[in-house]
Amino acid sequence: MEFKLDQATEVxxxxxxxxxxxxxxxxxxxxxxxxxxxSFSPLDVVGHLTHADKTDWIPRARMILxxxxxxxxxxFDRFAFQPLLANRTAESLLDEFAESRRQSLQMLRELSVEExxxxxxxxxxxxxxxxxxNLLATWVVHDFGxxxxxxxxxxxxxxxxxxxxxxxxxxxQ
Length: 173
Prior knowledge:
single chain, 173 residues, mainly alpha, Four Helix Bundle (Hemerythrin (Met), subunit A), 55% helix, elongated
């Protein structure tokens, strides 16, 4: 599928509601489960996505649109979200993510991105020149990846409990 901004924003706009449906009202056991001690829990994912909305996607889009192709993106710290989680309820984190995403999409609209802008480039430390369309498509797939991650983490909690049916449950393989 070719990148289209309106299709991308459909997904980005709905991610907070998807996470809300998956996580609001769940017990701490579900919210804090992890596949390994080093992996993200569902709440970690919410914190990570909130932090990315505030510090990554829109600042990089602005940098690309500033027409300064030689400017290099600031590195993104995947774990800088951790202070956001301190003494917070899942509900307050989900609300903050929804508001952060609403603001990010508003800022994206205010950038007035047109088709011609999608080919503009910025400089990534590891990948070199990347297009605005690459950045925005990555934002969408990043959301999908973390939604999938949450579902897999939570499914794994019943890995043994499903017994022999595990052979048919591809999410556990």
